[in-house]
């Protein structure tokens, strides 16, 4: 636009018509105030409070005396590319898992499982099933309405001490 007007001597109207824009677009001057102070303070606050989003930063700025609309603050927040730092996700196992070794004899590996059911009148109960993985023998079934971790440990100790052929 400016090149066509200075080098070729075209009028502003003709240069705008050649480019295909309205002259008002070429003449437009932004009246938006300079928000340099607000931008720097917003960057400082977001650096200090990494887990705060624009809403909580808006509250902090209001407490400091900045009178700014939250929509304007959001626009500046986006223009500065400030985002809440994402927390790390669930830690996953690295590499491939080694397959579980197949037991070569009895009492090398046991499996525990809770089975839950309810009686006709609504009372619930759980059964702890303890199975030897080598011969698929049920070593014990502990029935209780509320099995605690201490009780499970006691039952496992009791079953481990039993003599088996």
From TrEMBL:
<dbReference type="InterPro" id="IPR025948">
    <property type="entry name" value="HTH-like_dom"/>
</dbReference>
<dbReference type="GO" id="GO:0015074">
    <property type="term" value="P:DNA integration"/>
</dbReference>
<dbReference type="InterPro" id="IPR001584">
    <property type="entry name" value="Integrase_cat-core"/>
</dbReference>
<feature type="domain" description="HTH-like">
    <location>
        <begin position="40"/>
        <end position="88"/>
    </location>
</feature>
<dbReference type="Pfam" id="PF00665">
    <property type="entry name" value="rve"/>
</dbReference>
<protein>
    <recommendedName>
        <fullName>HTH-like domain-containing protein</fullName>
    </recommendedName>
</protein>
<feature type="domain" description="Integrase catalytic">
    <location>
        <begin position="104"/>
        <end position="161"/>
    </location>
</feature>
<dbReference type="InterPro" id="IPR012337">
    <property type="entry name" value="RNaseH-like_sf"/>
</dbReference>
<dbReference type="Pfam" id="PF13276">
    <property type="entry name" value="HTH_21"/>
</dbReference>
